[in-house]
Specification:
InterPro entries: AraC-bd, Homeodomain-like_sf, HTH-like, HTH_AraC. This protein is of the alpha+beta class. The protein is about 45% helix and about 15% strand.
């Protein structure tokens, strides 16, 4: 088979599905994870690369750190990592990858199945944490799929019929996996909504004395990264940007509707040093506090 490996303008190579390594030349592979596994002779797994097919890793050990689209994920026993075609990824250099890996070529399944299983839902999280019942169902479906795949070597069925059996077995596994991915995304959205709501309430209560993202995260019991994700999902901005916007709004209200000296306005929103308040206000409005007040009057 011709080498169709390509290199993108960003220098990241994209490797094709290795049909030649599949039993019977079918469009899937199922087998144990291993440190020697590769998609291509020139594709060191610890380097950043793309693939033009799907990978599903079901872990029985760990923890393992794996980069997908420049985000680091840590997978442990029972977790599943789903990497879709075109996503940039990189294996860690550890030998901790243990479990089962499924590789699937685009086009192996009919369009209706592709749509039903959300194969190209890039908005869904790559790392999944099934509960005990979900994990049991997924393991059973994958074990059956692997049995059918291994049975190709014994040729108990004509290849065309065996390929159909594989497609149906794969569909069962992917329907379970797609349901897990969609429900995980919904749970993450609800958690993000809750996190943002608590953050917004905390900012409304404490913005006059607390401008620190880390302090809010600590007080709410979240990591800074979790807080950043939740606020960005809800507002499209950073937690710091959200805090600063609320501080500026209050400063504008006080400048416009009270006769407080500018120094006292600054102190009221957390800036005991008038110079620091003026600098902050100018950075966010392109006006000094005095100019803003004068313009309104």
């Amino acid at each position: 088979m011709a080498d169709t490996t390509v290199e993108d303008g960003d220098g990241i190579r994209t490797f094709p599905f290795p049909v030649g390594l599949s039993v019977g030349g079918v469009g899937i592979q199922v087998g144990p994870m291993g440190t020697g596994r590769t998609w291509h002779a020139d594709a060191p797994l610890e380097r950043v690369h793309r693939i033009d097919f799907h990978i599903v890793l079901l872990f029985t050990g760990g923890p393992v750190r794996h980069m997908v689209d420049f985000a680091e994920y840590e997978a442990g026993a029972g977790d599943i990592l789903w990497i879709r075609p075109g996503q940039v990824h990189r294996f860690s250099k550890t030998s901790g990858y243990r479990g089962t890996v499924l590789a699937m070529q685009p086009g192996f399944l009919p369009r209706a199945t592709v749509e039903a299983t959300g194969l190209y839902r890039y908005d869904l999280p790559p790392l999944l944490h099934p509960d005990e019942a979900q994990s049991a169902g997924l393991r059973a479906a994958l074990a059956h799929l692997q049995h059918e795949y291994d049975d190709l070597a014994t040729a108990t069925l004509p290849l065309s019929l065996h390929t159909s059996v594989l497609r149906h077995s794969l569909t069962v596994f992917l329907l379970r996996l797609a349901h897990l991915a969609a429900s995980s995304a919904e749970a993450a959205r609800r958690q993000a909504d809750t996190t943002f709501t608590l953050f917004r309430e905390a900012v409304e209560r404490d913005f006059a004395t607390n401008h620190s993202v880390s302090a809010y995260a600590d007080a709410l019991g979240y990591s800074r990264r979790t807080l950043v994700r939740a606020v960005r999902a809800a507002t499209g901005e950073t937690p710091k940007g959200f805090i600063d916007k609320r501080v500026v709004l209050e400063a504008k209200r006080l400048l416009a509707h009270t006769g407080l000296p500018i120094g006292r306005v600054g102190a009221a929103v957390g800036f005991p040093d008038p110079a620091n308040f003026s600098k902050f206000f100018h950075q966010h409005t392109d006006m000094t506090p005095a100019a803003f007040r004068a313009e309104l009057r």
